[in-house]
Give the backbone structure.
Amino acid sequence: MNPARDAATFQVVDELGISRLGALLGTGACKRKALDRHAALPGKTPSALLGTLRHWILEAAIQGWWRAGRTAAPVSLASWGDLESNNGRRVISSRLVEEAVEHMDRELDQTEPWRAPLSRAWAPIAWHNVLTQLRSLALARLSLKPAPCPTGGGAPPNLVRGLKRPEVPLGSKSLHLRGAADFVEWPEDDIVRISDFKSGGVLDPEGQLKEGYILQLQGYALALHDAAHPRPKGFRLEVVSDGGVFDVDGRTETLDYLRRKLENQKVPWGQQAVAVDYETAGPSCMFCPQRPRCSSYTKYAEEAWESNRVGVGQRPLPLDIWGVVESVEEGPTTLHVRIRSPEGERRLIAGLAHRHFLSRLCQVGEPIWIYGLQTLEGARGGQFVHPLNFHEEGTKPWTSAWTTQVLLTK
């Protein structure tokens, strides 16, 4: 399973959670029979969350206002300082980054309390560089003039001429598409402009806009066309990134061709989820949030550690372990747990946080699965071997694991 599907913005209206656009991109190779969301590890790595931060900051800077979440009232950036002076713009950019980081940490604390604060996912100097880059991004894209804040809260917008609004929900029941466009403007000429804000790289190795982004914008256009009455005359589609603005083909004949392809996709709509497993496992399982409940991944990981050679662009497998508890030593804030793996090797987890054991500690002789650890051990002899010593809470904050989760049999 690809951890970052290009067309993930669109979801089908059923239990499977796969999209027709994803099928067009060939991302359905590892089809899920079900999705146990309640038992899943968090699906976003620190780098993916950094991408979300960049998206928030880019969107706010271009639109001229900041909204901490979909339901919070928007705040004009002009109220934070002087948009026309260099010093004022730097102050606004710094505050925008600070607000975005604080908002993300609050969200994570509420929804995924096992995560450490975002700043602890990097070494101090690396985190300083991250903040510097985010401030530079905001400063480069900050609007020169005050922008009026949107009104109407979360009320569904009217898809008619005069619309000018961010985060517009769009959907087409006939095409099974659903998503939210970052910005939609419907001017008097009836040519609707749909903009999507992207953080990070948007070009493929050949220097072309990634196919997933093209399909995403064209999907928005199809969804708006189906929902609007009267319908617009045409579309201007664009991807806005910190690297520039990229036009997407929104011609009528192009959209009609995509519509025919979507209508011909054979997706088993409405199937019920009955089991948790995947058809295949491989390198794309590295950060899959479902690996704790996937027997295919467990088997693959046990075999892959035996021949995981270091090479250009290669990375070690996730630092996950499972086996039978041999001993438990309880400290003031953490546990020392020794485990015997299925291969018969003893492994130590030093500094496993108490928060994983709210009702009871793990017991000697009990099977246990621990995902998302850290280790100080590296490659040996040109090979990434499965370490023998792990930890969650490190001696220094930036050496700690960030998303550890423990699963017991009961």
Remarks:
- Confidence is low (pLDDT under 50) at residues 1-20, 25-43, 267-278.
- The CA atoms of residues 42 and 112 lie 7 Å apart.
- The radius of gyration is 24 Å.
